[in-house]
Design goal:
The complex is a heterodimer.
Chain A: H1 2-27, H2 36-53, E1 80-82, E2 85-102, H3 104-110, E3 116-128, E4 138-146, E5 151-160, E6 164-177, E7 204-217, E8 223-244, E9 246-270, E10 273-286, E11 289-292, E12 297-300, E13 306-309, E14 332-333, E15 336-337, E16 344-351, E17 354-367, E18 373-398, E19 403-428, E20 433-459, E21 474-503, E22 506-523, E23 530-549, E24 552-563, E25 574-587, E26 590-603, E27 610-626, E28 629-648, H4 659-662, E29 678-682, E30 685-697, E31 703-717, E32 731-746, E33 749-762, E34 774-786
Antiparallel strand pairs in A: 1-2, 2-3, 2-34, 3-4, 4-5, 5-6, 6-7, 7-8, 8-9, 9-10, 9-11, 10-17, 11-16, 12-13, 14-15, 16-18, 17-18, 18-19, 19-20, 20-21, 21-22, 22-23, 23-24, 24-25, 25-26, 26-27, 27-28, 28-29, 28-30, 30-31, 31-32, 32-33, 33-34
Chain B: H1 18-29, H2 42-45, H3 50-53, H4 72-75, H5 79-85, E1 89-90, H6 100-103, E2 138-139, H7 141-145, E3 156-157, H8 168-175, E4 210-211
Antiparallel strand pairs in B: 1-3, 2-4
The chains are: A mainly beta, B mainly alpha.
Amino acid sequence: MELPRKFVQQSSLLEKRASLRVQTESNSAAVWGRGKRRIAIALAALLCAMIVWSSETLFAQTPTASPTPAAAPPAEPDGVTSGGYQIHSSVELGYRSTDVTGSGDMYDTLVNLQTGPRILDQTLTMQSVDHQGLLFDDLYLNSFGWGGDPNNALRLRADKNKWYNLQSSFRRDQYFSDYDLWANPLNPPTSTPSIPVLNSPHEFATTRRMSDFDLTLLPQSTVSFRLGYSHNNMTGPSYSSIHEGTEASLLQDWNTTMNSYRMGVDFRIAPRTVLSYDQFLDYYEGDTDYQLNPINEALLPTTPVSSVSLGLSFDTVNKEPCAVPTGQSSLIVNGTLTNVVCSAYSSYLRNQRIRTSTPTERINLRSNYFQRVDLVASFSYSSATASTPLDESFGGLITRTSTLAFLGTGTADANRISDTADLGATVHLTKHLRLIDKFYFWAYRIPENGNFSEIDSDCINPKACTLLTPLSATVPTIVPTLQQASFNQTWTRNQTELAWDISKKAGARIGYRYGDRQFNHFNDFLPGDLDHFVGLEKTALLGLWVRPTRALRLNFDLEHTNYNAVFVRMSPRKEGRYRFQTTYTPRSWATLGGSINILQESNADVQTQYVGHNQNYGLTASLAPRERFGLDLAYNFNSVIQNAIICFNDTPPTGVILPFVANANNNDCAGNDTANNLMANSYYTNHTHFGMAAVRFKPVKRVMANIGYSITSVDGSVPQFNILQPLGTLQYKYQRPVANLSVDIGHKLAYNMGWNYYQYGEGSFVGPTAPRYFHANSLTESLRYAF
Amino acid sequence: MAGGGDKTKIFVFEGKSRQETSARCLSCHGEAHEQSHFAESAHSSSDVGCLDCHSPHHAKEKEFLLVQEQPQLCYGCHTSAKADFAKPYHHRVNEGLVQCNDCHNPHGTGTVRQLRSLPSGDAVCYKCHVDKQGPFVYEHVPVKTEGCTSCHSPHGSTNPKLLNVMPVNMLCLQCHTFSTQLTAGGPIGPAHNQSAKYQACTMCHTQIHGSNFSDVFFK
């Protein structure tokens, strides 16, 4: 029975992706002129086309996204001088072929580099020789990933001295996510029928397109102006689920858009003093719709024939979606449902149209007017207004309430009003001593209103309510929901440091940070219905830096924080951050680095006993003793733990002993939470080793080669709550060898070839789903033309 | 000088401290909003100056005259970030889609970790993840009060969705357990048999970042 869902789901995603591929591949058939000037003109024309149209169909992708070293960059070409500009340009065209063995979904989740022609990289720079360019003095354009890779971007900068400065970018991210344990109900094999969920019920295949434009006019004048616009649009198929009796799979047709507008003005009101005013407007449109994805369907014994979807969870022993009736061998026999008193869906639809408007004003002052004082201050006020109607309908059966259908309507409104202020001042007490103060204030309140009405069609006779009961045998029940709530937070923070440059070779700083956070949560605005929290933060700060020689540099930072209260259980009462970094450059061709980052957290509350850390130790070496040989090495060890007491409810199947459950104390939680009577100290341990080695060598004058290897090895442990629960991402190896070859074939052309290998393998059992192991070869051949 | 100029008026970077050279650069560039917090920045306090990242005359990168392209330039000191972005689940920094300075301002900000924030004070994460910002009728309050990093590792993670902890139900249970330490007792846990189903809480509680229609984040 998993085939229908798999077919429906995969076919829709594949169709979408195939359509994208056809679009991008057809667009990659660009024709390039042979002359230098012609290429520059072609690139400029292409740039104009992209700016004007901003058409994502022009962009497919392909960063030279090798996770390990790419081929060494070629020497800077001479460029050409034309029209008063010094022009450099390059373009790299190629073809990638990919071969995947194992889980293609997992490969797409982690890598997603597919077969096809690509414009791997393109760069154009134009610099006015005499700063007398007509439209611009400098232009920089770079893009990569055209033709079908998951990530591609275009970045453009242009400026005309004293007149304008333009920065813009377009980025596209194809996001595919199908880690099959994600939101997987782990359907047991003891169910009849047994229907494992082979893909993540929350699979994503969406595309996010982001454009940013920022233009500064008269940047060096007494009064300058700034204009900006950003566009963020995410669309594509994805899947979600809904719980109404049992869990239905939903097609989540994602469609969200944010348009952001910015305008500002800078006034130079005094020497080295600028006063700015900015106006922002963000407008969000959330048009994601949800409809039933009819998986695990079964026929109803009706005439004419109809069917229902039984949803994701299939565990008939635990009556999910219902039990096998006495005398039947399975819940589904010959495609027909044997138990018609079963939670199931014949239809589900939910539409929403979220509209959020967020205007924000900001005023900012920055000044070095006084020789010994650096000052920066800003204040912003923002008021967001969101609203959406509810339009929801359900058909099927919810056995718990004997509901055959419901219709949801109403409106939801929420606001967020925030004030933000920051003030930074650095007072140079002496040439070597500075007093630094940073003040930060952020206050917001979020009043919320929901006014909904659900009209349920409940069976007149609940005991006789089945999937065959006609709607005429139901009575409408109106369930109103009136939600009025609000929460607000006020956060004030001040940090003071004294920095002392002892000499050019050493310095130190010591400081203190004080924070005050107040949080109020009002429910329904009734007297006494109020949560009020006050949390104080006290942090000691210490920093040291030493440069005993020009080649060696060492930094050490420490932050030690005490909080008098926490807002949520897993927030620390004590927190320590320790960071050590060093770089050593004994020769111009050798750089060695090391770092230690330690974060320690704890909350000794007897009911929490939270202990956590994130420790990171790293070493790097970059050696290039000869022009023809280079070596890069890196190793990193990351240890993460997060342990705390939890209360939970767990009854393993008969005969199954789960150590974590068996050893839990079955009384300590019951006093406060009777539904979760088991108490135990939960633990999450993750040890991650990362290693990387890459060799770069030049066997002959025109040939450059790279060979590299990287591995991420994860080992960890967590409690096992469910006998079907594998360790999954707590135990795996992810290996990525790589090899690159670049051959200078003359006439400003280079032939590049890159081979990437990816292998992902988990160490524990797979679980009741599809295996996630894969390995893949990806070969990219390209020609690069540069002048 | 041969041309008759006064050589002493030429600022010579050689031999100067980071503070001195940075002050020289900022005498012009300090007026820009982007560089306005440099004096209070962690970089400045750690003796990282303008010339550690920029080279006015010998830049290898034409963009911003950087001595090296991002993210390799940042990885030179922040080696743990390099390992984080090599994890299977990561923001696409190595791939070039996202740059370090999209989230951090290396010249300093008004907040900690040199993190950028939106003009409204909200986390920079919402610039891309626009659907998570709200406001919602039913806010999952810790998302707003504690921030995204209470559940996610923004650089990279060994877990899907950049989660700090897997499986999801344990991540949830660690907060959703009764505690008298919290004024209202805190959120109690779910009454679901962990052995029966509900392996991942988000299978039902799909709108966990905030919902407009469901107080238990179902829709």
